[in-house]
Amino acid sequence: MPNHVKYQRGYFMPPEPCFDWAKKEYIEKAPKWVSVDLRDGNQALIIPMSLEQKLEYFKKLVEIGFKEIEIGFPAASETEFELARTLIENDMIPEDVTIQVLTQAREHIIKKTFDALEGCKTPVIIHVYNSTSLAQREQVFKRDKEQIKEIALTGAKLLKELTDEAGHDNYRFEYSPESFTGTEPEYALEVCNAVLDVWQPTPDRKAIINLPATVEMSLPHVFAQQVEYMSKNLKYRDAVELSLHCHNDRGTGVAETELGILAGADRVEGTLFGNGERTGNTDLITVAMNMFAHGVDPQLNFANMPELVELYERVTNMKVEPRRPYAGQLVFAAFSGSHQDAIAKGLKWREEHDPEHWTTPYLPIDPTDVGRHYETDVIRINSQSGKGGIGYILEQNFGYVLPPKMREELSYASKDVSDHTHAELSPEEVNRIFHENYVNHEGRIELMDFHFTHAENNKAFKAFVTVKIDGDEQDVIGNGNGRLDSVCNAMEKLGLKAHIASYSEHAMTGGSDSSAMAYVGVEDPNGKIVWGAGEHHDIITASIKGLISALNRM
Ligand SMILES: CC(=O)SCCNC(=O)CCNC(=O)[C@H](O)C(C)(C)COP(=O)(O)OP(=O)(O)OC[C@H]1O[C@@H](n2cnc3c(N)ncnc32)[C@H](O)[C@@H]1OP(=O)(O)O
Ligand SMILES: CC(C)C(=O)C(=O)O
Question: Which residues bind Mg(2+) (predicted)?
Answer without folding.
Answer: 40, 245, 247, 281
